[in-house]
């Protein structure tokens, strides 16, 4: 549970850390979109190089970012298995009524790689951006939509708080699970129904703890006279620099490579 990296922030003074949060949010969004443009394994060379370069510039190792995949291994494995058995084609091996095909193996591996790159790429955003900067960046990007009634500040605050509390809730879940196991609880044996029933002693205190944390956070914000984004001032204003321009140029080259791999090669 503690291995999840999405939502965590590692302080630093690298080139990636110094980028404007709006730049990192836009680049992350473009990265996510372009991952779905790629339709073959050769095209994945571009996001792999992009992530390797970003990891080198940020000072955060790819090994650390890959640790965030451990809590999601079940989802990744399920994605691979569903594609492996559900896609029809040339049969490699038959298991009862199910059959493994070349096309299923190709598509399953392709989707798993896309999912891994998606998780690693998005985790790099939160690892190099503080929650306050992330809130300011999201609010600034959503501000033009406030003219049509979109609550930009409230949405930015909600998304940032949700990301911020993911590691906290995972750590709380780990503590409750260990405490329940010390009292004799068994979360690993039995069929699916019994395992689901064994999760009740885990979910009840987890929900109580989450509501308590939410109440404490609300009281802390009210005690500091928080009244939303109206007339709110900032000690540091967001300002893009030459580094942000270089980042956009690098993203443009990456996008051109992805589009070329899809439509030209």
TrEMBL record:
Its main location: membrane. The gene is ecfT_2. It comes from Fervidicola ferrireducens. It is found in: Cell membrane. This is Energy-coupling factor transporter transmembrane protein EcfT. Keywords: Cell membrane, Membrane, Transmembrane, Transmembrane helix, Transport. It comes from the Bacteria. InterPro entries: ABC/ECF_trnsptr_transmembrane, ECF_transporter_component, EcfT. Transmembrane (T) component of an energy-coupling factor (ECF) ABC-transporter complex. Unlike classic ABC transporters this ECF transporter provides the energy necessary to transport a number of different substrates. GO terms for molecular function: transmembrane transporter activity. Belongs to the energy-coupling factor EcfT family. Forms a stable energy-coupling factor (ECF) transporter complex composed of 2 membrane-embedded substrate-binding proteins (S component), 2 ATP-binding proteins (A component) and 2 transmembrane proteins (T component). One of its GO terms (cellular component) is plasma membrane. The chain crosses the membrane at residues 21-38, 44-65, 72-93, 105-127, 245-264. It is a multi-pass membrane protein.
